[in-house]
Design a protein that fits this description.
Blueprint lengths: L2 H9 L3 E16 L2 E10 L3 H4 L4 E4 L4 H5 L4 E4 L1 H7 L9 E4 L6 E9 L2 E2 L9 E2 L2 E5 H7 L3 E6 L2 E6 L4 E6 L5 H15 L10 H44 L1 H9 L4 H38 L7 H27 L3 H6 L2
Parallel strand pairs: 2-9, 4-6
Antiparallel strand pairs: 1-2, 1-5, 1-12, 3-6, 4-9, 5-6, 7-8, 10-11
Length: 337
């Protein structure tokens, strides 16, 4: 096992496991079909540690590392492009090398998976070929020969990433600082970065909270403007129907009857606006998902809450016009033209 990994696990008691990984880009082909892919060398713990699901076959096991087996687990996109309408398990793929090419037997296919951070292409494991870590060290070695613009350069990469699992979530931040301290002792050039997904998650949550506050403020202003609009409409209705209110009062209608009449009209108006708003919101969500490819989710609770709030705003906005209509003097109302 990689010696830096041993130093981390032996030095820090809060570290439950440390899984090394090395990745590089190579051409992978099968029966004339070529694909520029990422080759990721991993230990048996890597796939279960990162919750990568095996769709077909199996993952890399300890015996594969012990035997330096020429086996590979390929991503879903590699399987689709190199093995169209076929089951790739049991078949072979070729991985480009500098002096020689490597034949690997496919033992499994993974589903599409994106990790939080760490890999050179954003942690997306779709167009990828996994091979055992020890097989990589024996077959390919520590020195990677990279050809760029008709020139050769030798790049020595022992490991690209180490994924560390901590026994207690409360120890994540402190353990990350300790890991950085241990690694810096052997990397004076400071060429190693420690990325804590928990910190990224917290930053994302803070950003989301900020957006929620901004959107809430915008929604609040919209509700106030909508409430003022409903109040103006009902006040105009009271003015236009002043004579009607006087006739109803003269025929025996009480103040609460007049107030109830206008409140019912306000609620009907608010319900109509709320239903239209819900329809537009759901339609916009599905439109963004189908046209822009943005994943959206509309919950029943959010629909119910938004509808209830819109009706409540309309009801509150209609209280003053209803009270004003109920307090009109019947004689003055009958004289109104």
């Amino acid at each position: 096992m990689f010696r830096r990994t041993g130093r981390v696990t032996e030095t820090l008691p809060t570290v439950r496991s440390a899984t090394p990984m090395r990745e590089f880009r190579k051409t992978v082909w099968r029966d004339g079909k070529k694909l520029d892919s990422r080759v990721v060398t991993i230990t048996p713990d890597f796939i279960p540690q990162n919750n990568i699901r095996i769709l077909r076959g199996r993952g890399i096991e300890p015996r594969d590392e012990a035997d330096y087996a020429n086996v590979a687990v390929i991503g879903s996109e590699v399987a689709e492009q190199l093995f169209p309408a076929q089951d790739p398990v049991g078949k072979t793929v070729m991985i480009q090398g500098f002096a020689t090419n490597y034949t690997m037997t496919v033992i499994g296919v993974t589903e599409s998976k994106t990790l939080a951070a760490g890999s050179e292409s954003g942690g997306e494991f779709t167009k990828v070929v996994f091979i055992p870590f020890e097989t990589d060290r024996v077959r390919i070695g520590k020195e990677l020969i990279v050809v760029k613009e008709n020139s050769e350069s030798i790049e020595k990469i022992e490991v690209s990433q180490i994924t560390i699992t901590v026994s207690d979530m409360n120890e994540v931040t402190r353990t990350a600082a300790a890991v950085k301290s241990v690694i810096d002792q052997y990397h004076p050039t400071k060429d190693v970065a420690v990325v804590v997904p928990l910190d990224l998650l917290r930053k994302t949550e803070e950003t989301q909270r900020a957006y929620t506050i901004i959107l809430g403020a915008i929604a609040g202003v919209s509700l106030v403007v909508g409430g003022i609009g409903i109040m103006n409409i009902m006040l105009a209705s009271v003015t236009e129907r002043t004579r009607e209110i006087g006739i109803r009062r003269a025929l025996g209608a009480k103040r609460r009857d007049i107030a109830l009449q206008f409140l019912v009209e306000t609620v009907v108006l608010s319900c109509g606006g709320g239903l239209i708003g819900l329809a537009l919101g759901v339609a916009t969500a599905y439109l963004l998902k189908s046209v822009a490819g943005i994943e959206t989710q509309v919950s029943l609770l959010s629909m119910v809450v938004s509808f209830v709030v819109s009706v409540a705003v309309g009801l509150v906005s209609g209280l003053y016009p209803a009270r004003r209509a109920a307090r009109l003097d019947p004689i003055e109302a009958l004289r109104h033209t």
